[in-house]
Amino acid sequence: MPMLAAVFPRFASAAVRAFDPPASPMNLTRTVLRDLPGGTRITVRRSWEVRFSRVEDGFSLTGRQISVDVDVPPRLQALAQMEQSREETGLFPMILSPDGVITGGEENPDSTWFDRAVGKAAEQIEGARMPEAETERIMAALSALQSSATGPTGKVPRDLFRPQPLQWQVNRDVELPGGLSGTIAVLFDARMDAAGQLMAQSERRILSAVGGSSRTSSEIWALGRS
Known about the structure:
This protein is α+β, with helices and mostly antiparallel strands. It has helices at residues 77-84, 112-128, 133-150; strands at 26-35, 41-55, 58-71, 94-96, 167-175, 181-192, 199-210, 213-225.
């Protein structure tokens, strides 16, 4: 979406310190949270053992999946079983520049299919519980707004391991069909490890609202010693 073009931080600024990740194995975890109607939520947490290696033009990050946990409402257990049995193979290897910016690898991992499936499931649940036309219209608009906004969270941020800046926020008002209006807020917050070398944890949270109803989605990355 054009309105989200300004969301992502720029990567051109030079790093203050040389990028020098440890050679020992580390654990990388991605947690995706999606709100559903009725106060329920879908949570998918996937972890990999990863290792940074020096290559001619920077670094290579290889990894192998070590765990996946899925928490969903009972009606979506079939979807949970599919995700738990799937191994993520499209994320590695990642190629990083000398200053730690991802320049190769997969920016749009295969797990985005799950985000799309979640969106469709949420719309079906909403449609089955809409006794009033106005409420149904608002929920459909909210679903479309949230789905459009969360699209970028299926991609690996290029500055994942050295986020710049560490905190930022973007707010947008959105005009929707049928005379409705909505808002989107994208909030990012990250912290570095004790040495200031690598991202320890980062969270990108997307809040959307239409007609007094709201929904939140989050993507949380964490990196630590094995």
